[in-house]
């Protein structure tokens, strides 16, 4: 993310993926400062859940608001697609945090 912020809405879009879309998705998130790329990858497996696992469908746009967990300010997300497949767009909306990275 460009700035630390609190996420309030998520858009997962599987547009144009009709035979190769993921069955489900989830998002984990954390407020991270410093560290290496490898340490981020390892730690991200244990980050708290921002969006619990959600069912997806082909060629459709999904908006999640009520399902978004309130984690406070975050700087990084991990987008999990289960088992695999194509996603056209992932968008997150929220408010900038006064907490600086």
Automatic annotation (TrEMBL):
Transmembrane feature ranges: none
Biological-process GO terms, alphabetical: allantoin catabolic process
GO molecular function: allantoicase activity
Keyword Hydrolase: yes
Domain of life: Bacteria
Presence of the UniProt keyword Hydrolase in the record: yes
Keywords assigned by UniProt, alphabetized: Hydrolase
EC number: 3.5.3.4
Boundaries of every Allantoicase domain copy: 2-96
Annotated family: Belongs to the allantoicase family.
Name of the protein in question: Allantoicase
